[in-house]
Amino acid sequence: MDESFETDRVAFGAAARWFAETVHELDRVPARWDDPALGEWSRRDLVGHTSRAVLTVEQYVRPGSSDSDSRTVHYYRAVRGGRADPDEVADRGRRAGRDLGVDLPASVDALVRRVTGMVAGRAADARVETPVGEWRLEAYLPTRVVELVVHTGDLRTAGGLGGQAPEVASRRALVVLGALVADAPSADAPRLLGALTGRSALSAGYTVL
User: Fold this and answer.
1) CB 66 within 8 A of CB 125
2) Burial of 78 (0-12, 13-18, 19+ CB in 10 A)
3) pLDDT digits (tens, 9 = 90+) for 50-62
4) Partners of 118 in the beta sheet?
5) CA neighbours within 13 Å on the CB side: how many for 165?
6) Is the dihedral of CA 66, 70, 76, 81 positive or negative?
7) What is the model's pLDDT at position 31?
8) CB-based contacts of 38: which residues, under 8 Å, 6+ apart?
């Protein structure tokens, strides 16, 4: 077993369960799923969007193996090159939130159990067919860890909840983001180097994603 891929599977499972636990914590009486959460999204919408970080693994994994040599950073390059309309992304989140039904905690629990169980039985070279190309599961799964860590954090902030992501998940997310920093355009190098060494601050809204 590839040690790095095994760590990514553990990180994905931990991040997915943290997401499910967060949905349970937010489901307090009265549940405030229509309250604002992130941008134009309500809490329900953001749960829907975050659930897609789990659901797309199930939707995109195909039978057989892949000989793709593309790495995780290449996935982000491909996504940036064909980035969907922000309104479409927002609408997918809203639809996903509605599709989870009335009992959000139960629906998210079932999704997390199903997909983490599926991932546990897949090899590193399992074939993943995404809208931006084919990947090995070991290249795609870390992107889902990042999504789960970042957006579960958004949910907890919106709900006034404390707590941090499981260490294995946050560490793997940082590894991915570190690779994206190294892959940033050369023109961004001076401000990134300044910010990372405490000599300046990045402008609001700057992202390596």
Assistant:
1) yes
2) middle
3) 999 999 999 999 9
4) none
5) 27
6) negative
7) 86
8) 46, 151, 154, 158
Q: How do the domains of the chain map onto residue ranges?
A: 3-196
| Homologous superfamily, domain 3-196 | dinb family like domain (1.20.120.450)
Low-confidence ranges of the chain (pLDDT < 70): 1-2, 83-84
pLDDT of residue 2: 65
120's CB contacts (< 8 A; 6+ apart) are 9, 13
Instruction: Look at residue 64 and give its three-state secondary structure.
Output: strand
pLDDT at 86: 80
Q: Whole-model pTM?
A: 0.95
Which structure tokens are listed for 132? 């931006």
> Rg of the chain over CA atoms, in angstroms?
17
* Six-digit token string for 37: 């959460």
DSSP notation for 157-190 = HHTT------HHHHHHHHHHHHHHHHTS-GGGHH
Q: Side chain identity at 141, as an amino acid letter?
A: L
Which pLDDT value is given to residue 186? 95
- Cross-strand bridge partners of residue 62: 127
pLDDT of residue 1: 46
Cis peptide before 131 (omega within 30 of 0): no
Helices (H), 85-166: 86-99, 104-120, 137-158
